[in-house]
């Protein structure tokens, strides 16, 4: 089969690899119908996160179960399924608590060496019963819906995790740092959780326009100290109850802390990279600002978010603004790296 | 009257100052019956937190109301009262939310220039109605109880804040970094909130013995990586659900993060000082560890904690192991600085 592999920074290829296959009794093989490129894939693409030479890449996909191991009982060949970006056994202590990203048998497609990646024709799914979520079969015929459902694999659940970490409650003022797909999904999630006011920080009009469509009530185009000042002006000097941080750089974290209201929280889901962490401890301390987040246990959130995606209440599909086939994946990376594409949909 | 003043690092004096007096209509003057020296006073004493020359010091006290301004209605001369370590108006948006430390009219005894300090014969209390809490008059005759009640001014409420920030719940495994008075009060608070297991980190036998008396089930004497390994061994490799950080250094914060269980939280109340913050963002991110805390709004906690102190369920009074009069305050600082005293009680 064909799959995307990363050989060195910026050297990404689509090449022939051994077919995905059942290796353990709990495995399933999923033929990919939709995959996509994540902002966090860019860190590997740019060499900021180490990867082995030729390592697979891509961790967001949905598709049809093609084969299952003898111990799999939750999904059957032919089922339409979505995979969260990490696999998990579904039965360990952490999975039982909903923290599937800390599963004792868990792993991360493309990140765990030896694993398959989602930007491919097919994927071997370990612990299929714990990992995969079955979708209604008729969704396969609805192109828009299928694209929306794909966001359950990462960006929608990650935006939701940030909103939960930030403590978004009905009536809250929320600020969202980052106008990428996760930030935009954070806007959707904040609105869904009842935020009264949602301030989106971003400078790309196409993205901030989308943020408004998704529920943002205000847009702040400034950066750094000017952004902090702008949000403070919008909030009577107090800052936002809940801040969603969806970038992961020192500057974005510093901005997030700077615009949080005393007693508020920063819900962070931007993969940390770079040298500093941007956390001003004096500010956090004096203002009792909580910092809460991390890698999102999206498997846990899928059952909660799925009904809203199915009935159209929640439609993140507009975050995709470029579609490629498998051969077009390298072009997709280049477009996202250059920020000419917001998020790339892959139809193998 | 006489009050403690700080003139330069290690140059602490007890000297004649103008009498505490009502200056604003909402003020009260409190004659100090009990005060004490806080671990955080040492940062000012050592010059690690800047202070003006001759600035007052001390922020923990209880006493008897001597005089009130015309707008004070909540307390009357003769009332026995305890003051939290910050004053607050009790009516602003933040006070209404319980975040009295972010009060729009708030301040910090000894820290806000021009304010009185608690290590003195008397203290001017701004916003007396919002700030002071009346205690039963007969407590004045009970030396042990009076000392226990004094901890409501800071250390008990601060330990409680850390436990709340760390998310202590019934059945939780809690680890406490710091064997000072706040850490020990964190042990008490964790036990009160239903912790099943409490691991106290500390090397001073007298302090860790007290931690056991307060409810600690295990003691870890190691530091740094060895402490992390020891706590992991005690918790089946997982770490503690809730970590109370009561020191404020880079090393203590790093230890706190290192011993937290995935999905857990660090409740931090150690005043941050030093260059680094000890937060390993990759660890926090991968394990979804929350960092939540700050300057404790102890005014808000007093009504909740007071009944348990009055009925003896909660008795932090053993944290005091040295008693001085006002003239003995400089000796008290020296003893705490040298760690020969755990916490110094001042009877002016």
Automatic annotation (TrEMBL), chains A, B:
Domain Alcohol dehydrogenase-like C-terminal: 181-305
Keyword field: Metal-binding, Oxidoreductase, Zinc
EC primary class: oxidoreductase
Domain (Alcohol dehydrogenase-like N-terminal) ranges: 25-133
GO molecular function: formaldehyde dismutase activity
Requisite cofactors: Zn(2+)
Known EC number: 1.2.98.1
InterPro entries documented for this protein: ADH-like_C, ADH-like_N, GroES-like_sf, NAD(P)-bd_dom_sf
Organism superkingdom: Bacteria
Pfam families, per the entry: ADH_N, ADH_zinc_N
Name of the molecule in the record: Formaldehyde dismutase
Species assigned in the record: Streptomyces rimosus subsp. rimosus
Gene name of the encoded protein: fdm2
